[in-house]
Amino acid sequence: MQPKLRFLTDELIERIISEAREVLCRLGMEIHNPELVSLLLEHGAKVEGERILFDENLIDNALRTAPAEFNLYDTAGEMTHLLGGDRVHFTPASAAISILDHGAQTARKPVTADYVRYAKLMRGLPNIASQSTAFVTADVPELISDSYRLYLNLLHCEKPVVTGAFTSEGFRIMHDLQIAVRGSARAVAAKPLTIFSVCPTAPLKWSRTTSQNLADCAVNSIPVEYISMPLAGFVGPVTLVGSLVQHTAETLSGIVMTQLINPGAPALYGGCPAVFDVRYETTSLGAVETMMLDCAYVEIGKYLGLPTQAYIALSDAKRLDAQAGLESSQGATLAALAGINNISGPGVLDFITCMSFEKLVLDNELAGMALRLTRGIEPRDDFPALDRFRELIAEGHLLISKHTRRHLRSEHLFPGPVIDRANRSRWSEEGSTTLGARAHAEVERLLAAWEPTSLAADVKSELTGLMRAEAERHGLTTLPELERES
Predict the structure, then answer these.
(1) Which residues share a beta bridge with 91?
(2) Which terminal residue of the chain, N or C, has fewer Cβ atoms less than 10 Å from its own Cβ?
(3) At what angle do helices 145-156 and 112-123 cross, to 10 degrees?
(4) How far apart are CA 447 and CA 294, in angstroms?
């Protein structure tokens, strides 16, 4: 039995959804996209000033056609995810602007070499099911930083990618990169390789860029995750229930637009709400109330029959310290118990602004523990029990019994070398290493073990050709040098 966590009763969920629908239908959304506005008006929405008032039928029809689950596939076309139900998957958080330098223990601007290391590292982390475009490299123009990161992901790691476009124009090249891998636009739609994050602006607004990204993904059947971000006490009600009403309204508006464009287009009911800490003027993603918001809106998504996502299992700490472990592990545990389908968090610190490779390998272990938790406790040849205990009494132990050998690996999770389980004397003999030192050693070990992906040489060449042409279009005459084995 998979253990479950709930914060909301069905009655409270229904009231939140009802209030959110009323907000959409009577107050509406500000949508800076004339084409989408026209589409909404054609299907029953109304204009009131600068706001678009939704219609109950629009919402009902969208929820009727939105799929309850969908698959993701790697670069080889093999299915890696079934997103839906209570299935749990982890992915790094996205779009950090700095990287924690292990040696200096300071944050700095990342460059291409850092991103290549990240993508290679991701290949060796079995408990983190997908990549993300995790941080922004500073050595290419900003206008191609979204497509450039996806290009590096596809070149160095087979896992699917959670990504997003920073501009309306950026989608085209990002779609072309996927076509180069799959062979055709139809194949990209049939076997999705990416999920695009699309973010309404709090409160109750869609910008031209994000709404166009939503539309482009819907037309091409590329999955999206709606990332509504009410900040409780700032650009959202201070109460958790009030912020959930806002999150629900903003997310429902995205579902309506996606399903109007392409009924049945895949999407995740996601988000990144947070509480606003008025003492420091920060959006605390490690706050327990933020984690509660995440788990609660996921309950609403599941109640609506939709697959889910959340930014959780991350930390506001600035280094790999006790706070980082506390906030990340609590989030990972709560997320797993809530059955969040796509948990976006591993690897990041400092309010999603800083990536740490050492934290990423630690979070791979936290993810493994959380995934073990979801398997729960089940009997495995345990009944009848009498013979097992007769053997225990006779032998004095069960270390080499058939029952132990049969079930040891499935029942007991054995974490990697980042986690210290040695006794003190052995720990001392092996160098008395700290968590940070063990994590860094694991980073270096995994990078040394990396081997080129199975992506065909001509596909890699096509990816590079597409990226080089896009870079030249934005004034970059050459791409930063990549390692030869790419």
Answers:
(1) 344
(2) N
(3) 40
(4) 33
- Co-location of 300 and 393 in the same domain: no
Distance CA 228, CA 65 (A): 21
286 and 155 within one domain: yes
pTM higher than 0.70, yes or no?
A: yes
Residues 325 and 434 placed together within one structural domain of the fold: yes
- Residue ranges making up the domain that contains 294: 1-377+415-486
Let me know whether 235 and 185 are in one domain.
yes
For the chain, what is the domain count? 2
CATH of the domain at 90: 3.20.20.480
| Residue 163 tokens, joined | 């990504």
pLDDT, residue 486, reads 45
From the list 467, 414, 396, 441, the residue with the least C-alpha distance to 174 is 467
Domain boundary among 393, 414, 435: 414
For residue range 308-354, list pLDDT tens digits in order: 999 999 999 999 999 999 999 999 999 999 999 999 999 999 999 99
Tens digits of per-residue pLDDT, 127-171? 999 999 999 999 999 999 999 999 999 999 999 999 999 999 999
CB 222 within 8 A of CB 174: no
Helix axes 288-303, 240-261, angle to 10 degrees: 40
Asked if residue 206 and residue 62 are part of one domain, the reply reads yes
Q: Are residues 185 and 282 in the same domain?
A: yes
Could you give the CA distance from residue 182 to residue 452 in angstroms, rounded to a whole number? 18
Please say which residue of 414, 429, 463 terminates a domain: 414
Q: Are residues 83 and 191 in the same domain?
A: yes
